[in-house]
Amino acid sequence: MKIGLIGLDTSHSEIFTRLLNDSSDPHHVAGGTITHAFPVFSEDLPISRDRFLHYKEIVENKYKVKIVENIDLFMKSVDAVLLATVDGRNHLLWLKNIVHYKKPIFIDKPIVMSSDELKTVVELSENFQTPIMSSSSLRYAQSITNKETSDIVSAYIYGPLPQQQAMPGYFWYGIHSLEMIVTLFGTDIVTIKKEKYENYELLYLTFATNRQVIFRGDYDWHNRFGGIIHYKEQIETFKLWQDEQPYYRNLLVEIIAFFNTSKSPVSLDETAQIIKLIEQINSLE
């Protein structure tokens, strides 16, 4: 399977390409190869602009991916698309440019920047019969997928929550921890409380089942996603950075299956609920 990559301005550009294209990598994912890349970055977003040339160099020269700057040629050269620009503000625009080709599309986080935009994504998917998937890699981390969720009573979850003005609040890094929480607890959240401190914030979530989650988000970036889960009769701790399999690999396994079947393991309805949750959290002071 030939896979096209839109966006060369994020570490995912290198990670996805390495895991799919390098068969010698110990975590190689078979079933598809990134063969073409459409070079995209956002001039007004430093995390995009300042990393573009670095990742373009790696993808093009190290992994021999063909750079194509004509979107029609790009789409006709591939079987499926990874829309992986770091800037969530442009995802809907790019989707509008490619959805009519009717090829499976994975949209990296954040899928879009509002519930209204998400409604448009759903409409485009339905109107053009184009399958669309979006998911955080943390949803498929070993420490999450191996958990029995039915007996969970409560949890303390922690992770990085660096801020980006262009993607405020939980749209950038916070969305990953929220997807981890939703995977374990579902989306039936009835109360939300937020407390802000100098270097971090605490989020208190109560679910319709009376289960509770406390999330601590550190404003400084780090890679330590983890938590403590309370069951009725035991307590389990988990640290994603210690998992044997990297969560990006597990996500790519799901993406390749989606590209082959056109059936997303994460519904757009659930994705819409996550976007709505982010909007609710961001509205709190």
TrEMBL record:
Residues 57-126 form the Gfo/Idh/MocA-like oxidoreductase N-terminal domain. It holds the Pfam family GFO_IDH_MocA. This is Gfo/Idh/MocA-like oxidoreductase N-terminal domain-containing protein.
